[in-house]
Structure formats: structure tokens, C-alpha cells
Amino acid sequence: MTAVHLTAPDIDPSEVEYFEKLAHRWWDDQGPFWPLHKLNAFRLDYVRDRLCAAFGCDPDAERPLEGLEILDIGCGGGILSESVHQLGAKVTGTEITEKNVRVAEIHANWSGADIDYQLITADDLAASGASFDAVLNMEVVEHVEHLPDFLASCAKLVRPGGVMVVATINRTPVAWLSAIVGAEYVLGWLPKGTHHYRKLVKPKELAAGLGPEFQVIHETGVRVNPLNRHFSFSGYKGINYMMVFQRAGTAGSGA
Predict the structure, then answer these.
(1) Annotated binding-site residue? 223
(2) Is 243 annotated as contributing to ligand binding?
(3) Is 76 within any annotated ligand binding site?
(4) φ and ψ at 189, to 5 degrees?
(5) Out of 66, 126, 161, 254, which could bridge 156 as a Cys pair, Cβ 3.0 to 4.6 Å?
(6) What does the record give as EC number (predicted)?
(7) 129 φψ region: left (φ > 0), alpha (ψ -120 to 50), beta (else)
(8) CB 188: neighbour CB atoms within 10 A?
(9) What is the pLDDT of residues 33-46, one digit of tens each?
(10) pLDDT for the residue 201
(11) What is the pLDDT of residues 166-211, one digit of tens each?
(12) Three-class SS of residue 29?
């Protein structure tokens, strides 16, 4: 798959209304995508703090990620991409679903966000020679069919000294009970079938897939309170967790 920049001229006028309605749904924090908005506010602080720690930036600055080139893999409708862009980073968002790219571009046009959205796989992007200071792999790896190949491609996209932030769900019985049975079938927070137990990912599988060049520099469990829908950090990584990996080398040295 090659990169496709879906700017306004590329959108069939008959589809504009459809995608605008979809964009409104993606960006309605009280609508069906509310879990993403709740999660985004929580994970954005984590991303900011971890990237600032890795690159020596001031997390309290108005635009703390100024000067960093960041890739958001599986960007969806652009919720995290726009949030990171607002922190000063130059952001590229990639998707393999055309409608998500169109939704993201439409909202970026509305908000005046200069983000490079591309319809492309991680493998093809890596093959192009692209590389970034940081790669965000948030809630993506648990949907991948061939995880080692995907992680190998993602690893190539991180510059020496750069980092990768991964957020996913552990493959444990308690994760199955909580994240699949609870979230999808009992609470109805996510559509049924969103996650499949066999695709959930253990931390050691992430490390193995990225290879020996990558070292874990931070990790945390994530807890969600089903009563108030509040996310918080946890020492327990048996359900949701986030990890930050740094590639060996000197930051800014290029691929």
C-alpha cells in the first residue's frame, strides 16, 4: 500500500456529508467514542512526561514537544495525533482504513492542525526510509495478525536514541474477564468482538519483537474504575499496560 494524502480534492463530494457526520461522532466525547476520549486525556499526559524525560524537554513548557517528529500508528480519527500536535510536535498519523484517514483530515482542517495523515502500513512506511524521534503504538498491537513482523517494521521507524510508546492489553485470564467480557459484553463500552484473546500481547512479546536494540525505560499498569470511568496508573500490568522503549544510539543521529 502506498501513501495517500486525502486532501479535500480527493474526497467525492457525495461522501463529504457522510464523513463529516462520522467526524462529529469520532470527536464527540459523550458519543460512542467516549472511551477513546477518556483514555486519550490520560495517556497524553503519560506520553508528554515520558518523551520529555527521554529527550530532556520541560513538561511544563507551553509546547514541550517542540522540535520532535512523532509518528502515531493507527491514528484513527486523529484524537491523539491532534493532542500531540498541540504540544508542539510535528506529527505524522498513519492508518490502514481509508475512512479513518478522511475523518482525521476533515477534523484537522476544522481545527487548523497541520498533521500529515497517510494511508499506509508500518511495513511500507519503514521501507520508504522514514524515521521519527518517537513512535506511538497505542492500542494497536492487540489487533495485529503477525505481531513479530509488525514490531520489526515499527522498530525501523524509530531513530537511534528515539523511543517507542506502546499501550495495549496483556494476555491473561483476568484481562479476558475484564477487557473483553466486562468492557464489551457486560458494560457495552466497546463493540462486541473489538478484542480477541489470542491477539492480546504479553510485555515480553513486545520486547522480543522490537529486538535487543530496544530497552525498556518505563512501564506501568493502567486501571479503569467502571463506576466513574476514571483511568489511573497501577503497579499491576496484568490487564492494561503501557511501556516505553528506547532504541540504542544518540538521539537526533538519524537512521
Answers:
(1) no
(2) no
(3) no
(4) -70, -30
(5) 126
(6) 2.1.1.222, 2.1.1.64
(7) left
(8) 10
(9) 667 767 888 899 99
(10) 96
(11) 999 999 999 999 888 888 778 777 778 778 899 999 999 999 999 9
(12) coil
- 8 A C-beta contact, residue 218 and residue 167: no
CATH of 8-247, one of 3.30.390.30, 3.40.50.880, 1.25.40.890, 3.40.50.150: 3.40.50.150
What is the C-alpha separation between 54 and 148, in angstroms, rounded? 25
At residue 136, the 3 state secondary structure works out as strand
Looking at this protein, which amino acid is placed at residue 211?
A: G
The answer on pLDDT for 12 being more than 60 is no
Task: Tally helices (H) and strands (E) across the chain.
Answer: 8, 8
Query: What pLDDT was estimated at residue 10?
Result: 38
Q: For the chain, what is the radius of gyration of the CA atoms?
A: 18
User: If you search the block for the grid coordinates 477487557, which residue do you land on?
Assistant: 179
Can you name the residues that pair with 220 across neighbouring β-strands?
242
Q: Please give the average per-residue pLDDT across 63-88, as a whole number.
A: 95
- In the chain, the N- to C-terminal Cα span, in Å, equals 22
CA 12 to chain centre: 28
Q: Where are the domains of the chain?
A: 8-247
* Across 124-138, 155-169, 216-230, least confident range: 216-230
